[in-house]
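INFO  loader      accepted 1 record
INFO  loader      residues=570
INFO  predictor   begin
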Amino acid sequence: MRGAGPSRSPAEGSFDLAAGTGYGVLKPREGTTANQVTTRGPPVRAETGWWKGLHPGMALASKGMVLAFVVFTLWNVEQAATVYAGVRVWIEASLDWYYILAVSLALFVCLFLLCSPYGKLRLGDDASRPEFSNFSWLAMLFSAGVGIGLLFFSIAEPLFYFDNAQTAGYPNNPHADRVGALTPDRDRAVAAMRVTYFHWGLHAWCVYVIVGLCLAYFGYRKKLPLTLRSALHPVIGERIYGPAGHAVDLLAVFGTVFGVATSLGLGAKQMAAGLHTLFGVGEGIMTQILLIAAVSTAATLSAVSGVGRGIRILSEWNVYFTAVLLAFFLFAGPFEWLVGFIAVSAGDYLWRVLPMGLWMTGQAGEADWQSAWTIFYWGWWISWAPFVGTFIARISRGRTLRAFVGGTLFVPSGLGLIWIGIFGGNAIHMELNAGAEGAGLLDLVRSGHFEAALYGTIDRLSDSAWLTWSVSALATLLLATWFITSSDSGTLVITTMLSMGDRHPPQRFRVVWGLGQGLVAAVLLLAGGLHALQTASIAAALPVSLVLLLITWGLLKSLWQDPSAVASSR
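INFO  predictor   done
INFO  writer      dumping C-alpha cells
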C-alpha cells in the first residue's frame, strides 16, 4: 500500500513482501488455503529510492522498449511502416486461419465456462463479494473496451458494407454478395449490420473475457500477483518470476502503450472534426496535438484519483451522456423502422454468428476483404486484450465466474449491438430513402472520411440549427470522455504490471505513464508515424495470441485440479 511500505493487506493477496536488501520477496501468508498457490519468488518490488513500489528491471525495460520503438519509427517513418506492414501482410496472408480459430476457440471456452458447474466459483475467497455495483462495473468495463471506437465506426462501417462501389479495391461485403444481396436495398442493409455486429460483438469480447477471467481467477482466488504472467503458472510454474514472465508482462505493456497512443492520435482527428463543425476551428495537426494534450492530462488526473473515484465516476457519466445521444438518434430518426430493423438484423446476426466466426475464403477479392476487416479486428482485439482484460480483472473481485463471463460477454455485446443498430441504422435509412443522388454519407465513406460520417448523420437528423449544434457538441464531448476512460484505465494497467500486481501502484508513476502515452501519440502524429505503429500493434497480436492460448489451457487445467472447483462441479 502507498505510504506504508509494500506490504499488502489480506484483501489484496495472500503474500507479504518481506524486508530484504532493498527489495521484497514473495512468501506465503499464514493461513493460505489448499487451493491457493504457495510460492516464494525472486526479488519483486523496490522498497526504497526512485523505483519504490515498482520492479526496477521491468520499469527500465518498459521505458527502453517504448523509446526504442518510437526512435526506430521516427528515424525513417516510411521504412518502419514498410517493415510493420510487411509483418502484418505476412500474418494476414499466412495465419488468417490461425486468428480465426484462436478467436473462435476463445468464444467456445467462454460458453463452456458459462454453462459449466465451475460457474459457481467466486473470483476470490468464497466469502468475498463484488467491490462495485453492477452498473458501475459494467460502465467501467464498457468504457475501457470499445467506447470511442463505436463512436468512430458505428456509422461509417455499416455504410461501407452497405455500399457496393468497391472503392477499396475489393468487395465491400462478401457475406452479402454470397447470398445475392448485391443492390443497395433492405437485404443488403441487414447484411451490412450483421457483419458490423460480428466485428464488435461476441467474438470481440470473448478475447477480453478470457484474459480478464484468467487474471481475476489467479490473482484473487490463487493469490498470485495481478499480472498477465500469473495466468501462466499452471504451464511454466515458478518461471513466471523469471525472464519468461517478464517478457509476457512487457508484451502487455507494449500493447497497452501503443494501442492507447495510436487510438488517441486517430481519435484526435475525429475530435478535431467535431470542433470544426462546432466552432470552425481548423482540423490541422496543431489542433490535434492540443486535443491530445488536454485528453492526456485529464486521463492522468483520473488515473491518479483511482478506480473508485475518477475512473468510476467518468465511466458512469459516459453511460448517461451516451443514453442521451442514443435517445436523440432513436427518436429524431425513423423510430418504428429502426426498432424493426434492429430486431431483424440482430436476429440475423445471432442465427449466423458461429458460421461467420469459422468462415475462411480462398478467393482473392474475398480474402483481401477478410484480411482488411475481420483479421484486422481480431488482431486489434487480441493486441488490446492484456490491457482491457487486466483492467476488467482489477474491478471484478468477488464476482462469480458465471457472473463475470455472462456480464462481460453478453452485456457489452448487447449494448454495442443497440448502439450500432441505432447509429448505423439511421445512416442506412437516409441512403435508402434519398433517391438517386444519395444522402451524401456514402460519399464521405468512399473518400475515406470516416470521422465525418458521425457529424454528417447528426446534421441530417434535424432541421433545427441549435439542436444540431448541441448534439454535435455532446458527441464531441463523448469522444473526449470515452477516450479519457480508456486512457486512464491503460495507465492503471501499465503501472499495475510494473508494480508486480499492486492494485494501488505509486501515483507518481501513474503521472509518468499517463502523460507519456499522450507524448508518444503527439510525437508520432507530428512525424506521420501513427499508422505505422498501429500496424505494429496489430502485428504484436501474434505473440499475444500464443499467450492467450496458453493461459486458456492454464485456466482449464487449474479448474480441473482445484479442489474447491471440483467440489462445486459435483
